[in-house]
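Why predict the complex rather than its parts? Because the way molecules touch one another can change local conformation, and only a joint prediction can capture that. The input here totals 913 residues.
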Amino acid sequence: MLLRHTSKEVKEREGLTINPAKTCQPIGAMYAALGIHGCLPHSHGSQGCCSYHRSTLTRHYKEPVMAATSSFTEGASVFGGQANLLAAIETIFSVYDPDIIAVHSTCLSETIGDDLQQITRKANDDGKVPEGKHVIFASTPSFIGSHITGYANMVTGIATQFAVSTGVKKNQFNIIAGWMEPSDMREIKRLSKELGVRIVLFPDTSDVLDAPQTGKHEFYPKGGTTIAELRSAGDSISSLALGSISAEPAAIGLEKSCKVPFETLDIPIGLSATDRFIMALSQAAGVKVPDEITAERGRLVDVMADMEQYLYGKKVALFGDPDQLLPLTEFLLDLNMKPVHIVSGTPGQRFEKQMRQLLDARSPETNFRNGLQADMFLLHQWMKNDPVDLLIGNTYGKYMARDEDVPFIRFGFPILDRIGHSYFPNVGYSGGLRLVEKLLNAIMDRQDRDALEEKFELVM
Amino acid sequence: MEKITILEGRQKQIFEKKKGVAQPDIACDTSSLSGSVSQRACVFCGSRVVLYPVADAIHLVHGPIGCAAYTWDIRGAVSSGPELHRLSFSTDLQEMDVIYGGEKKLYHSLIELIEQYKPKAAFIYSTCIVGLIGDDIEAVCKKVAKETGIPVLPVHSEGFKGTKKDGYKAACLALMKLIGTGSTENISKYSINILGEFNLAGEAWIIRNYYEKMGVEVVATLTGDGRIDAVRRAHGATLNVVQCSGSMTWLAKEMETKYGIPYIRVSYFGIEDMSKSLYDVAKYFPDRPEIMEAAKQVVSEEVKTLYPSLQKFKKALTGKKAAIYVGGAFKTFSLIKALRSIGMSVVLAGSQTGNKDDYARLKEMCDEGTVIVDDSNPVELSKFILEKEADLLIGGVKERPIAFKLGIGFCDHNHERKIPLAGFVGMYNFALEVYQSVMSPVWQFAPRKGGTL
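Output of the joint prediction:
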């Protein structure tokens, strides 16, 4: 038992984190930047940061992940990283020829006080940015927030540094993607198309991190939101931010810079959140929900009804990221399941409040904690005190699942040991169907495995 | 094919072996160009990989959460007992800690950890930020060691303070503090330490078993399946046997100076090098010829079963071409030989951290036309793989998807290997893995081999 040392007794810890349910800001910024077409993410820090982020994203997507680094040395850390970054910008444009460099900071460059806004402006002033090319930036100190914060900061950077308001509105809507998979972004686009609504989705990692085998290594894959689309986002009628933590800051930024009004919704995971998304988009655009989408919804409700008896009352522990946990928890409640323990390493009162609100109304006895020391060690302790039927979370949950002999569904980031997340969405009604299938498979496989012979059922 | 150009300023780190052409020295041991898409990592990474396999110690990363999160159990260094190394411990430094210092948090974290896990020792890794805010981790470690009675060892692995190699050294410095603190009673005169073997997929067990069959006592493995008590008595061994030259040569030299223990460099990859590493140890004990006899016995037994089993792979793979891009250069030498023994040639050989001597030797070993690179990037790797029509890439996690996108086979010779590649059985596994990947039916569907609709 790998986690044999986990004690049942929960004690407050003064500072120590064991088996984190989060990681640091820069990887989120890198992921967001990959959702812009022709963009090379750039890590302004030590070489290791960039290497770790690329490796983690590669393990999660089984795809090449390109990003550059300022390769800090001791000198840079004493005298500031401006020279490194300016040199890097020159090198990158001359050799890797991206349309955009998206620079994010690290704990190192933040602590020595590098000002990315000033340095990137200087790069522009000094003519280091070729005509028609761009350098954007986001401040992403690793000692604040989590990977979700970094994602939100870079998406905000993307929104505010590209979008322009020409004064002439376009008949289109912005959809700002909270942290979700390429498959989810593809599904958001499909649903919008089905509704007949023109959207600008950003960031968009579909066709970037789910690229086909072509015999070539495409340094800049075909996908990603284009500069033209991003520019036009300032003229959109309104924005829908999918996720109050990872997407809303960008919508606020866009409202400030281009006066584009916005509405914040949950990421459309599960039935209720998808209903809200479809209604919001169709109402904003003044379109009728087409029969096909109504039928999709009907199929999900049908399955939920068919299988209710197997899901009812099942106790679930889950961990992950705020904007995914909220709608997922709501979906579990809609399925008549019991989320009993919820943990997220991402700090923030907004999330805490939202989750509490949801739980107070429908499941007040649920254990919930986020932020410092809300880690997998704590979740494991909770599971020992109040055992569950199912665990949902990223790959690192497999230790707890094995030790406690609990069925486990992989959901979130990172998933290092399974495929599927890149290709099959969790969002929308079809994503809901996939989730129900996964829940049922996990529960029923276990039931089949453990059933006494006389209780071993053929028809379930 | 589109021409892919080499990054300006990188030419000195690339070399193509050609007859009659002056042979310049390759530039290496330098830090990467700012703005390159380098495959390299940092000082912290170097320290972390060296110490990570010590399974009965806690490894506390002092810094923001990322450094601990990204290095959580990603290396398959297996343990036969405790598995504390597979957990992730961090002080998760916050903004206020950066402003006011993280010493208190470090102290409390250590006390809590030691109480919870009762480890044999603790390693405390400094990350970039700790180097900047000036936490006195030496003092905290000393204090905690005194209060808890276990060794608490600071590892000065601030990411920006050099290259991955400097991280190896910082790790070795911590190990040096442990070595010499245990009893050497009852250690045989015919004894060795295995250095630079990390027990990925259980490789150290295979190697250890060979030596033990020869009648040689293995005092400590540094650090594969590592135990603090074994490290503490490592100075009682007669000889240090060093693999993975980059990470552990420094430690071997230190032990030679301080304890008079000589060292030899070996490699456990491929029949030739594996056999040599047994013979070289046996040669060191001439007064006991049984050891050499036993070594010969081990080699002959192993090769007798291995050699015929390799022939079917060789038949299929003869004439196929490989590209190698790995961390240390020393590994490259063995891989070239191992690939030759299954009929394959090497068209690209490179490493992240090779030194001048390594590259001089590489030049000697390689065939004409082979490209040699230091600290390469994906653009270059793709370019040479396509130009030289390689059928296989040997590399690590970041290189794997590039090979597959190009439509060629891949073998992970880094820490994501799933089966042992060291030892005689490892050579079989290696050949099998190369064969399975290069000859996979999937490639016939890939556009490169004409597999279109």
